[in-house]
């Protein structure tokens, strides 16, 4: 008889980068184990690197949220998710997912994203210049970490950068576990309406961007607005958190800054692994599946703890140590399987340009509050910091 | 190479860019070198291991 657990929450005090401590103990004992969900469902929790990969790679597991139970309670959420609207391919299975993703993969290849390096460098320099002009202290989130990825995804997609505060406000609401279902629905309606208008504008007057090009495909207006929603949301609220949280991690591990400069590509992979900002996911078994000597029954939800998998000592020796010289390939921070992050090569280019440039420009950059007092985003789908007050010496 | 399974994540290109590439149109995997030299094998093994969709298979020979 297996011991059934509930989902561990709560990050250890003073260790903002570490997953809930109980997750490691659960993983080391049994990397795939029964999990009791808040609604009474008995499903599974995958914490081991190999078990997580096996679930994410297996087409017998669905990404449709209307089939899933969720491991943590959400404010005002009655447990029933509506079916996902067309175009929200992150929540669709093959073959629906295949069609949408196939229209997009050619636009996010390694080569295409590396061609954007020069533009990312330009944008980075502009923001570093502005920081320098305004003087020796700022909030790194709003001055640097948010605007660079926001500008890049807006340009790529063809969304007006002037409306970024509107986008950021709504994406923050979608990711916030404490936002009520009502507030989330309002946010969705406002953002959805904006994107629907944008799609109509691109159809009427196409410009040189991804959304305009997608109007040439057979996607409907609703599908296009939902695809735009996913791409914009994913572009706005992910890399920004990696840049800000990554900087905080470097403040607390200053010996690692030289390694970032020496090999930014390698360093970025390790930051992705160590920080695991998109920490948890869910899948639902569509059929009985035998895995790791357990029988996962059709209809059962499996919660995927990507952050626990990224700290699995069976895959990464000394996993709780940030070591930017480590070869961290195989981390799960962009997921695994057919849903693995479409924009990951863009995220890599943004991080490998922005992070070293920041420390190059401001060698004395430091936080103005103790790292343990930096306000974190907790209870969210994507981890990060709310603000990162920094200062530097003016030569 | 299974281009039907491929989801265009680009992991193989990161692992070994002399052996793998992505199609300019649909982003799916292209094999540049079907018989990689010995010094490329570690990268090729990594490409197969990290491929998210199981589209890369190694054959002995």
UniProtKB/TrEMBL annotation, chain A:
Belongs to the cytochrome P450 family. The keyword Glycosyltransferase does not apply. The keyword Cell membrane does not apply. This is Cytochrome P450. GO terms for molecular function: heme binding; iron ion binding; monooxygenase activity; oxidoreductase activity, acting on paired donors, with incorporation or reduction of molecular oxygen. Transmembrane segments: none annotated. Keywords: Heme, Iron, Metal-binding, Monooxygenase, Oxidoreductase. It comes from Umezawaea endophytica. SUPFAM superfamilies: Cytochrome P450. PROSITE patterns: CYTOCHROME_P450. InterPro entries: Cyt_P450, Cyt_P450_B, Cyt_P450_CS, Cyt_P450_sf. It comes from the Bacteria.
């Amino acid at each position: 008889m297996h011991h059934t657990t509930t989902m561990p929450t709560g990050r250890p005090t003073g260790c903002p980068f570490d997953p809930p401590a109980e997750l490691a103990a659960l993983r080391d004992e049994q990397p795939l184990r029964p999990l009791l969900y808040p609604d009474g469902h008995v499903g599974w929790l995958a914490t081991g690197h190999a078990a997580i990969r096996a679930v994410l790679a297996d087409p017998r597991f669905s990404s449709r949220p209307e089939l899933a139970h969720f491991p943590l309670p959400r404010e005002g959420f009655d447990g029933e998710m509506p079916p996902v609207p067309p175009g929200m391919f992150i929540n669709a299975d093959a073959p629906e997912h295949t069609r949408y993703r196939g229209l997009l993969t050619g636009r996010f290849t390694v080569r295409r994203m590396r061609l954007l390096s020069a533009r990312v460098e330009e944008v980075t320099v502009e923001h570093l210049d502005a920081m320098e002009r305004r003087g020796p202290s700022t909030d790194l989130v709003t001055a640097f970490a948010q605007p660079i990825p926001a500008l890049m995804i807006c340009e790529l997609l063809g969304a007006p950068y002037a409306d970024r505060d509107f986008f950021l406000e709504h994406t923050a609401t979608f990711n916030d576990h404490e936002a009520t279902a009502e507030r989330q629905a309002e946010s969705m309606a406002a953002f959805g309406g904006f994107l629907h208008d944008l799609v109509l504008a691109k159809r009427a007057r196409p410009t040189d961007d991804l959304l305009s090009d997608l109007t040439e495909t057979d996607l409907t207006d609703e599908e296009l607005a939902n695809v735009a929603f996913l791409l914009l949301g994913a572009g706005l609220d992910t890399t920004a958190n990696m840049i800000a949280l990554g900087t905080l991690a470097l403040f607390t591990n200053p010996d690692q800054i030289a390694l970032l400069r020496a090999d930014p590509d390698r360093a970025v992979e390790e930051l992705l692994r160590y920080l695991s900002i998109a920490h948890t996911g869910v899948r639902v078994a569509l059929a009985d599946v035998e895995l790791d000597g357990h029988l996962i029954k059709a209809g059962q939800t499996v919660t995927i703890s990507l952050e626990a998998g990224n700290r699995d000592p069976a895959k990464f020796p000394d996993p709780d140590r940030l070591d930017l010289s480590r070869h961290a390939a195989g981390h799960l921070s962009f997921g695994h399987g057919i849903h693995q992050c479409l924009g990951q090569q863009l995220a890599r280019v943004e991080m490998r340009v922005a992070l070293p440039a920041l420390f190059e420009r401001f060698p004395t950059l430091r936080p103005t509050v103790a790292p343990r007092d930096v306000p974190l985003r907790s209870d969210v789908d994507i981890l990060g910091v709310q603000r990162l007050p920094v200062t530097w010496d003016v030569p | 190479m299974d281009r039907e399974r491929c989801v265009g994540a680009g992991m193989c290109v990161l692992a070994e860019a002399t052996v793998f590439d992505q199609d300019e149109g649909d982003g799916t995997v292209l094999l540049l070198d079907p018989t990689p030299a010995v010094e490329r094998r570690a990268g090729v093994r990594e490409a197969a291991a990290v491929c998210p969709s199981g589209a890369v298979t190694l054959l002995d020979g």
